[in-house]
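re: the backbone from monday

yeah here it is again, tokenized this time
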């Protein structure tokens, strides 16, 4: 709606919105970070019983080898990390961690990756595809970006060691 020239469909919706005094505000780009921020803002109480039963589990099928998705989030009240493994047999293995120290979001991302890699090593899964939404962490580990912040160097070195 913010474009000077609207497509036919958007123009029709705009006219419909005007009738009801509805104002359209375009959303900013939504990143995968929003889920991590939500989980950091709303931690699951310890007394809750978690289930791994998910509706539509067949949607989550991933072909071999194992895949690992990691995400970390830092918040003023704490930090957390999440890791999800997908097996070739379509099993989903979710893990979540509460990080005990306050840290930056980039450190939380590195810690999520490291916790996931350590878990994979413990499960003897040495061949897996790793996915993360942190452009900085991923590009540093691929060698595209240099690690310039001193507080990230130990995490980078340990992650590279685990990846080896």
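seq for it, each position gets an aa:
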């Amino acid at each position: 709606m913010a474009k000077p020239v609207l497509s036919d469909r958007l123009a029709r919706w705009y006219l419909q919105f005007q009738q009801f005094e509805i104002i359209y505000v375009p959303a900013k780009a939504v990143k995968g970070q929003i889920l991590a921020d939500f989980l950091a803002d709303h931690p699951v109480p310890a007394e809750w019983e978690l289930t791994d039963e998910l509706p539509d589990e067949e949607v989550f099928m991933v072909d071999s080898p194992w895949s690992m998705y990691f995400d970390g989030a830092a918040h003023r009240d704490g930090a957390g990390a999440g890791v999800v493994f997908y097996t070739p047999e379509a099993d989903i293995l979710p893990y979540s961690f509460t990080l005990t120290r306050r840290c930056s979001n980039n450190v939380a991302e590195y810690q999520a990756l490291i916790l996931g890699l350590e878990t994979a090593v413990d499960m003897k899964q040495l061949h897996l595809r790793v996915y993360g939404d942190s452009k900085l962490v991923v590009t540093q580990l691929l060698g595209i970006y240099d690690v310039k912040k001193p507080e990230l160097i130990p995490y980078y070195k340990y992650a590279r060691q685990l990846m080896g």
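The radius of gyration is 20 Å. The chain is about 35% helix and 20% strand.
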